[in-house]
Here is the input.
Amino acid sequence: MSTKNTDVLIVGSGIAGMQAALDIGDSGLNAVIVEKSPSIGGKMISLSKVFPTLDCASCITTPKMAASSHHPRVDIYTYTEVKEIKKVSDGFEAVIIKKPRFVIESECISCKKCEEVCPVYVKDEFEYGLGVKKAISIPFTNAIPQFPVLDESKCIRCGACARVCPKDCIDYLQKPEEINIKSKAVIISTGYEITPMDAKKEYNGTKLPNVISSLQAERLLAPHGPYGKFLRPSDGKIPDSIAYVQCAGSRDESIGIPYCSRVCCMYAIKQAMLLSGMLPLSEITIYYMDIRAFGKGYEQFYNQARAMGINFVKAKVAKITEDEEHNPILRIDRQEDGSKPQEVKHDIVVLSQGLVPSTKNFFGLELEINEYGFINQPQKTLSPAKTNIEGVFVAGVASGPKDIPDTIMEAGSAAVEVINYVKSVKVGS
Amino acid sequence: MEDKNKKIAEQLKILNAEKGPVSKELMDYYKEANKKQKAILDSIKEKEKTIPEISKETSLDSKEVLWYLSGLVKYGKAEHIPAKTGYMKYKAK
Here is the structure.
């Protein structure tokens, strides 16, 4: 097992992890980022645009990805799992496992010839299952690093990729590699997952083809999305009528997620506005309990959406079913005019799911977590990045739902805290 | 080239010995997927068609047709003709 020494180990390479790594690197300290996916960038790189500015998400994230990967004091391990992190007398020792891509990275020139000749189509996780990739493929167009990954569970061992590779860098016998990372401090920036599609059984999210997740909707809206246009998955129809169901995975005691996820109102409004531009003839309806537009410029954004003709209906959606043509039927209870429950039909429904922690097991670290699995911040007001363990810091959604500006700000705060901590340890030792 | 092919064959032989042969389920999936792709491409070889039309002609589920077409377009074997409403049409390249 090889060993790598660094000042700060950062777990997770979403926008929080990358921002913290860049600030730490710029300060003169060294950082190692460990990312479980084959590319850095986190969830943000898969988003279409950001609210309330409607800037292209990729245009913000890609430069950060490039800067992180080229920074002389930042080392990145992608497609790598953290097995454990232990506190030791002079800092932390982590064991990480670099999973095999079955590609010799030092030789690969990212020519994509292996992907072109591979005959096996598989579901593309980057498109949340909507699109196609090959059994060997580069994760997505602007992935960093640009190395393909061979999915050995889908490989039919035809040898086509190895035969076409001009650098002979396909290695079918590659094995996982264990690496020991010694650091003085750790930042946890493991981010979030969205509430599972089957969390609310009444919505039949995993059964009805035209009930999709908010992240699938992001991909359909993205310029290089899976279908090249916003089409409904059951038959490729350009939808005339689109509905958003708010609080479909948060503020709901019945699914154990009573908290507000803070971003769902705004991302639904953003998607609705983008759809309104992309499909000007379509009718877009947002079913909501309250609109929580709390950030800078958010209220204006909401008002702009109303002015654009997006329908906001204060109603709770009780159930979603479908007709024989897979058109979702929503049973709604309006909350404003005292009308009776009614059924409304749409072409496609997007569930505005909430945010839940991506992991509840923090690699053996005895971190205090709250009842929902997010990392506790014992000094939330003065030192939000500190955790209950000295030398372990938190950034981003790992400590609770928040939007991108707050995540970036918190990552900067975590970097400053960790720089001060590492320098104090160095002076003290 | 001969050396390269020999090395690949040796690696695949070791892999088969270590992990056993490729499962029948995976090979069946692959063969089936190839047939479906071919049926879709044959359907749009002469004339551009919508997904419901391709689905009817090939007897494949329209959801599946869309999924395969997304791959065929991505990997340059088909193209779509943009539409503002209704259904886009697809054509083999």
Observations:
- The interface with chain B takes residues 116, 119-121, 130-134, 153-157, 159, 162-163, 168, 170-173, 209, 226-229, 231, 233-238, 240, 281 of chain A (CB under 8 Å).
- The mean pLDDT of chain A is 96.
- The first strand of chain A starts at residue 2 and ends at 5.
